[in-house]
Design brief:
This protein is α/β, with parallel strands linked by helices. It is built from 17 helices and 14 strands. The chain is 39% helix and 13% strand. Helix 4 runs antiparallel to helix 12 and helix 13 runs parallel beside helix 16. InterPro entries: Aminotrans_3, PyrdxlP-dep_Trfase, PyrdxlP-dep_Trfase_major, PyrdxlP-dep_Trfase_small.
Length: 449
């Protein structure tokens, strides 16, 4: 029924979106304000969102598996958040002074997440990572960081290096990482060691080359942009051992993966970080970021009787609107709510894999809890070099994203798809059905060889 409705609405002719995109290109480079926006063939402009669905300006309705890049745990226009924010708007949107709301949200996060003893709120995910790196440098007195290829850590110069490195022709090694854009100081690359996720064989040797200069190992416990790679226990154990041996801090970037459980992703995989960054879900749909960790490390931001080592400001940091929204959204995410999302995610990933297996096609599924990705390859990747799609694979991914959109489902291209609490078993069944229908198309059947 949904497929018939969307087809009737003219899914391939988004008239109002095309009109707005033509206007936008006069005002914005490429006509957009985020480089992550999908332009195939152009952006779809949205009019509204409600629960698990969004509606574009041409009146077409989609099941949203993007949720603003995994931010919206409760989907769109979640009523308890809307009511709390509406009340706060009448009382004021921002002050130069603190409010009680920031303490309440901080206490909730500290109570839930074992690695956090103290925290600081900032405005964005990128700021959270930037200040975590600065804190590690100030604490250790060292300038360099290690990070893993393909993982996304925001727009700080040192965090960007290694995000987009390509593999060589053999697909088992990565090309040398370089600054992320032309004109960036070349010396930045001297203080960033780019490693391969889950590569136990080379990790110790590579770290040893820069160990005395390394302040921190920056790690996303399940790197999304790199393929939603599942961390292997020996790999996590080795990171712990080497960090202790060389006096290197561990920074867990859980901006995206905090949604993996009531206590986040680091706890789930046995990672014990010294610092942890957060964002997305903790803001309830409003801008936010946070850095937390051991109190002795967090003391670089200020300690009574001692000079501040790292200055951290931000006009809108801990603004009451984000604090109120985040508190209400996180309070609603009880252990049972996380468990329900995980059961739905398990069922979805299993059935998607079963569809591909039944048709003997080269598609595999990665992810955990409420997150998943579909890869155009026989075996699920365990390293970034394996997750980089071939030219043909990228063509298949574009076709799959278009097919989902044409059938009323917003599926991110080359990024983590996610579930939200208003989704139902019927929504899961619909996603599986659309994927199975896509596997019948000629472009999908190319994956037989």
């Amino acid at each position: 029924m949904l497929q018939e409705q969307t087809s009737a609405a003219g899914i391939d002719d988004p008239l109002q979106s095309r009109t707005l995109y033509a206007r936008a290109r006069k005002s914005f480079p490429l006509g957009i304000n985020r480089g992550t926006m999908e332009l195939d063939p152009g952006p779809i402009y949205m009019a509204s969102g409600q629960g698990a669905h969004i509606t574009d300006l041409d009146g077409r309705r989609y099941l949203d598996l993007n949720n603003n890049f995994t931010t919206l745990l409760h989907g769109h226009a979640y009523l308890p958040v809307m009511e709390a924010v509406s009340k706060q708007l009448r009382q004021g949107t921002c002050f130069a002074n603190p409010t009680a709301h920031e303490i309440a949200l901080a206490e909730l996060l500290i109570e839930r997440i074992p690695a956090i003893e103290q925290l600081r709120f900032v405005n964005t995910d990128s700021e959270a990572v930037m200040f975590a790196i600065k804190a590690a440098r100030a604490y250790t007195g060292r300038p360099a960081i290690a990070r893993f290829a393909g993982a996304y850590h925001g727009s700080y110069d040192w965090a960007e290096i290694g995000q987009n490195v390509a593999s060589d022709d053999r697909k088992d090694r990565l090309a040398t990482a370089a600054p992320a854009y032309r004109g960036a100081p070349a010396h930045i690359a001297d203080d960033v060691l780019v490693l391969e996720f889950n590569d136990i064989d080379r990790l110790e040797l590579q770290l040893a080359t820069l160990a005395d200069r390394l302040a921190a190992i920056l790690i996303d416990p399940m790197p999304s942009r790199a393929g939603l790679l599942e961390p292997q226990k020996p790999f996590i154990d080795l990171i712990h051992s080497l960090s202790r041996q060389h006096g290197i801090l561990i920074i867990a970037d859980e901006v995206l993966n905090l949604r993996q459980s009531y206590q986040g992703a680091a706890s789930r995989y046995g990672l014990v970080p010294d610092l942890l960054t957060m964002g997305k879900i903790i803001g309830g749909g409003f801008p936010i970021g946070a850095i937390g960790g051991r109190s002795d490390v967090m003391a670089v931001f200020g300690k009574e009787g001692q000079p501040c080592q790292v200055s951290q400001g931000g006009t809108f940091s801990a603004n009451p609107v984000s604090m109120v929204a985040g508190l209400v959204a996180m309070q609603a995410m009880t252990r049972s709510a996380f468990d329900r999302l995980e059961r739905m995610g398990d069922r979805l990933r299993s059935q998607l894999a079963q569809c591909a297996g039944n048709r003997n096609l080269a598609f595999s599924i990665t992810g955990a809890a409420s997150l998943f990705r579909i890869h155009p390859r026989w075996v699920a990747p365990s390293r970034y070099a394996e997750a980089i799609p071939t030219k043909d694979g990228l063509t298949v991914m574009h076709a799959m994203t278009r097919f989902f959109r044409e059938n009323g489902v917003c599926l991110p291209l080359g990024a983590a798809a996610c579930l939200s609490t208003p989704m139902t078993d019927a929504d899961i069944d619909h996603v599986v059905s659309v994927f199975d229908d896509f596997l019948k198309t000629p472009i999908a059947r190319r994956q037989e060889t």
